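User:
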Amino acid sequence: MLTREENERLTRVGPETPMGNLMRRYWMPALLSTELPEPDGPPVRVRLLGEDLVAFRATNGDIGLIDEYCPHRRASLWLGRNEDNGLRCVYHGWKFDVKGQCIDQMNEPRSFAHKIRTTSYLTVEFGGIIWTYMGPPELMPAEPKFEWTQAPEERRYVSKVLQESNWLQALEGGIDTSHFSILHRALKKNPSEEGIPLDSPAVKSAPKLELDKTSYGYRYFGIRQQEGNDLYVRAYHFIMPFTQLRPPGPGKDHVHGHFWVPVDDHHCMVWNFYRSYEGPIGSEAEAVDGGGGNDPEHIDAENNFLSLRRAHNDWLINRNVQRTDTFTGIKGINQQDRAVQESMGPIVDRTKEHLGPADKAISIARRLLLAATDAVERGEEPPGLQPEYWDLRPAESTFSAAEEWKEKIVPMMQVD
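Assistant: Predicted structure:
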């Protein structure tokens, strides 16, 4: 349970808030590269940490991420003309380069463009993602070159979907391993909708949780008792402040994971990434058996990647499917996560919770995040800024009770 003050500190992400200041110390995914497919193409609206921004790919291929509103009379630059290495406001013709510097003023007989600069943020592009850093330039950390972002394009896949809840309850849902075999389970063989099979080792028992703190956050293990005293262990990484690496399920040589990036206090963008060591990935359905609820069937990419199954239509829950085929009756494993997290309201009142031992990963994450906000306020470096996390992998395996499972699985949690 958190105090009301702690809950506010963890969930509010706007400028000059403790969590907003912490988030601005990290690189964040801002757009899919496919959203800006060509130079001089249409600009794209981006909302991050409560700020309204606009992104554009300039003539030379550089990417600008600047304040949406022109500093002249505050017209939206989303309406602007992307031309000749700058975005030009259609109202009076003021033009801005990718660094936010005004470089032309069509309506002024004596230009003072050199005196005008709008808010802009640094960007880099790799792994199919355009990343941004919104913090002090002199404190910029290492770029987030996760191993999967360096893989050949055909061996990785990235998607995103807007979630209508605060970022923290989305993160907490992701790092909660005990719900995995409950919320997402199938009720029978060959169900009409996807679900964790009844014979999966993940549904044999409730997990015991172990957690090791690290320089980047922590690694954590869900340990489930199997028949004959075997132990099925799922091993994850939590990387500060909003990243999870998770196992793909038995039998796949993949890395799966999420970023839960705050859009504002009441929305977050859920990023889903997949990396295969086996062969090409052509779609999300190929990365996740049956799809995870993030493909075009579920998401309106033309409407800010909003889910088609939302609170206003009760996530299209099918009570007949819930009765006979899957635990929830909601289509798509990731959609099931979004449904329960959105059902809590925009920001959960954590003063009313009753946590148990299975919630250890959540409790520790909250303490790490609170401590990190304190560190930033003291002028210190928060965890997870250095590249120690680049080569991490999740892992899972079944061990005999007599084996020292941790000695065996920890070496599996690093790329060779």
